[in-house]
């Protein structure tokens, strides 16, 4: 029977969120999600989902507030509830079918109250529940009904006509998710002999699946592992054999508890290229302890979206955090000078309280070893990614066409138009040429055509100095000047 609408009704939503800006580029996060809350938990394993709201996350990944165990919930909190940016591609690697990713719990006796009881445990797989009483094994939907309550716990209610209709107690056994069993190898993933990708390798499918460019990639918590950091860094350099990105990577703060130790921690992590944005330590967001990469990835996406889709520096931008903490929640207070000297100076982005919490830092992980602006500055790297990705995606259609002067002229004239549209607001200047010296006859006969773009974008204002002089002559002139 259809639901005939002839009434007035209301809906209640307890979520407190901010207005969401939808970006032209996306961030991609790899991690763990409470997939047990889904109708088909195994269907969310190693499948990218493009989500634009917390409701999408709830539908495709499962949704709760256990930020410690489910790292994709940290991305959800930062992007949708606090920063207000979308879309995000999420990839869950927590596998309900992997013995290392689940824990079996032996039967425990529960007292029934008005025919029902609740198991106050997170992560229970609904289809794993076994209910019994007096050595009688119950049948689901016949002797009992199991369902999740609003907190993600399982409520078991016995039926009035089933085997447990007269029972005062029942025994419940179940299997629950074990996010702690997820390893660096699960996050990194791979490609099977059949060509099936998992983990970070799934980034290669984002452009073909969703026709969006994955500009910013992360794996909150797991990126603090050197192997995961290396995989993210390598993938950012070339995604799907076509696109470039930046990888936002955490430096751990469980062992690294002092500013003077961060340099050694960076060295152990082994991340030193222009493709990586390193973050330390963790942050408090909505009163919850989360990894910095979740908040910084959201901010990088947001500042670009707020700049007409063109990359901009995250430095000195307000970030909706409540404070800075080390692993375990211990508050950590730094002065601006400390952030400068111990973190920014070694290519690590952090946070400073300057009348409000701000992202603080312009440098990629390449600094200080590499001080060229297009390798050193986060914004400059993202700008080069932006114009290169734009060229590759917009002019890819020319591959296979006749390599004649019409094609060459089309690229030069059209791409120069694209570059001119970015000048002078976003680029100081830019132009593309087809240089005959770079295109000898032998190369043309092979079908190889080389174009050359020269450009310069604006470097961020890293340091502003202003000298103030107390001049007694000015004071003297006040008393001596005029009648």
Write up this protein.
The protein is of the alpha+beta class and 483 residues long. Among the domains are: 196 residues, Rossmann fold, CATH 3.40.50; 82 residues, no CATH class; 58 residues, no CATH class. 26% of the residues lie in helices and 23% in strands. The protein has 13 helices and 22 strands. It has an eight-stranded mixed β-sheet with strand order 2-3-1-13-14-15-19-20, sandwiched between helices. Helix 2 packs parallel to helix 7.
Structural class: alpha+beta
CATH class term of one domain: Alpha Beta
Q: Biggest sheet, strands in spatial order?
A: 2-3-1-13-14-15-19-20
Under CATH, the topology of one domain is which? Rossmann fold
Poorly predicted residue ranges: 12-16
Compute the number of strand runs: 22
Characteristic terms for this protein:
Rossmann fold, globular, 8-stranded mixed β-sheet, 483 residues, 13 helices, alpha+beta, 4-stranded antiparallel β-sheet, 22 strands
Quickly describe the structure.
The chain has 13 helices and 22 strands. By secondary structure, it is α+β, with helices and mostly antiparallel strands. Residues 12-16 have low confidence and may be disordered.
Compile the SSE list and pairings.
Blueprint lengths: L20 E11 L17 E3 L2 H7 L10 H13 L1 E8 L9 E10 L4 E4 L10 E4 L2 E2 L6 E5 L5 E5 L10 E9 L6 H5 L1 E2 L5 E2 L7 H5 L2 E6 L7 H12 L8 E5 L11 H8 L6 E4 L2 E4 L2 E3 L1 H14 L17 E3 L10 H8 L4 E6 L3 E4 L12 H4 L1 H18 L9 H18 L4 E7 L7 H5 L6 E6 L14 H9 L3
Parallel strand pairs: 1-3, 1-13, 13-14, 14-15, 15-19
Antiparallel strand pairs: 2-3, 4-10, 5-9, 6-7, 6-10, 8-9, 11-12, 16-17, 16-18, 19-20, 21-22
């Amino acid at each position: 029977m259809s639901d005939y609408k002839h009434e007035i009704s209301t809906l209640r939503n307890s979520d407190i969120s901010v207005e969401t800006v939808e970006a032209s580029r996306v961030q991609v996060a790899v991690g763990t999600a409470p997939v047990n809350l889904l109708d088909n938990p195994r269907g969310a394993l190693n499948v990218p989902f493009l989500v634009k709201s917390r409701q999408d996350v709830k539908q495709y990944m499962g949704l709760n507030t256990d930020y410690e165990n489910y790292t994709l919930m940290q991305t959800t909190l930062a992007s949708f509830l606090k920063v207000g940016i979308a879309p995000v591609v999420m990839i869950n690697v927590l596998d309900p079918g992997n013995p290392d990713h689940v824990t079996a719990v032996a039967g425990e006796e529960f007292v029934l109250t008005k025919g029902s009881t609740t198991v106050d445990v997170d992560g229970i797989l609904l289809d794993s529940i076994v209910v019994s009483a007096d050595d009688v094994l119950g049948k689901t939907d016949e002797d009992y009904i199991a369902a999740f309550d609003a907190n993600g716990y399982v409520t078991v209610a016995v039926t009035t006509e089933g085997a447990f209709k007269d029972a005062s107690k029942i025994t419940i056994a179940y299997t629950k998710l074990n996010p702690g069993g997820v390893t660096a190898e699960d996050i990194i993933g791979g490609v099977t002999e059949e060509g099936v990708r998992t983990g970070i390798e799934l980034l290669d499918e984002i452009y073909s699946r969703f026709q969006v460019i994955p500009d910013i990639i992360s794996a909150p918590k797991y990126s603090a592992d050197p192997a995961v950091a290396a995989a993210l860094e390598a993938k950012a350099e070339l995604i799907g054999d076509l696109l470039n990105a930046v990888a936002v990577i955490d430096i751990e703060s469980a062992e690294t508890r002092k500013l003077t130790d961060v340099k050694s921690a960076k060295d152990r992590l082994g991340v030193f290229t222009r493709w990586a944005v390193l973050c330390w330590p963790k942050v408090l967001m909505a009163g919850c302890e989360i990894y910095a990469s979740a908040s910084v990835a959201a901010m990088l996406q947001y500042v670009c979206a707020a700049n007409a889709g063109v990359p901009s520096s995250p430095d000195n931008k307000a970030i909706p955090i409540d404070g800075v903490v080390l692993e375990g929640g211990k508050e950590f207070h730094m002065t601006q000078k400390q952030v400068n000297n111990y973190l920014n100076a070694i290519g690590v982005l952090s946070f400073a309280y300057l009348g409000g919490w701000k992202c603080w830092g312009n440098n990629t992980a390449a600094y200080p070893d590499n001080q060229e602006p297009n390798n050193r500055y986060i914004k400059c790297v993202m700008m080069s990614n932006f114009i290169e990705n734009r060229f590759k995606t917009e002019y890819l259609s020319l591959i296979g066409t006749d390599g004649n002067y019409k094609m060459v002229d089309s690229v030069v004239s059209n791409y120069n138009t694209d570059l001119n549209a970015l000048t002078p607001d976003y680029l100081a200047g830019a132009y593309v040429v087809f240089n005959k010296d770079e295109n000898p006859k032998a190369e043309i006969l092979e079908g190889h055509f080389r174009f050359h773009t020269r450009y310069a974008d604006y470097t961020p204002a890293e340091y502003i100095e202003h000298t103030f002089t107390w001049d007694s002559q000015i004071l003297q002139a006040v008393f001596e000047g005029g009648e």
